[in-house]
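Entry:
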Amino acid sequence: MSEQREHTADEMMSVAAARALRDDASCFVGIGLPSTAANVARRMHAPNLVLIYESGCLGAKPDRLPLSIGDGMLAETADAVIGVPEVFNYWLQPGRIDVGFLSAAQLDKFGNINTTIVGGDYDNPKVRLPGAGGAPEIAASCREVFIVVRQSRRTFASKLDFVTSVGHGSGPGERERLGLSGAGPTLVITDLGVLRPDPRTAELTLTELHPGATLEEARDATGWDLAVAEDLGQTPTPTEQELTVLRALTEASP
């Protein structure tokens, strides 16, 4: 057996996200790590995973990582190409998509996301970010949401400067009160580990540490008192096959 190759933090995040995607599911895919994870999953264990891109490409089967949601290759390999309004009005908002991927500039302990401003107020922010895009609809209506983000005190904030996309609101029952149909964030994958909402409190709880990461690092990179599972596990190291598939995808991209 060959010696296990070393991997980067981004590779660990992509592999962990790919493993969480199941066959026959539909996945609303963004560019970057979510697209990488979805395409790795489709090549590894989920050949029937349906990739849906915001540009209207349903069932895209790219042979390399797309450069953007408007990459022509997505349309060329899709089962169907529809209008953006139909993506949102027919597929996303009625809850027909199983998994949606999101990232965050700030994330709080209940999985609420800020991608709008940092510092100041909305009219006079210290930094104005790209904004909402389709994230609020993804957070509200996908059957579940996976968040992929690097972990730091700046990102894992005790209080958001703005709530762009609702996760679990202020705690249990908040999504139901707001009339949000999806389950919200069920998985958060960072460069240090994996977090899941506690079924009783809805608070993000560290359930796995990635190889080489420590609990002290995870706590130091969190802006609140991090909840830790009693049976804290370790994320399995990426296999040779996973790294080979992942690197073949990234190397094939322009």
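Helices lie at 9-20, 33-44, 72-77, 84-92, 135-141, 174-178, 215-220, 240-252.
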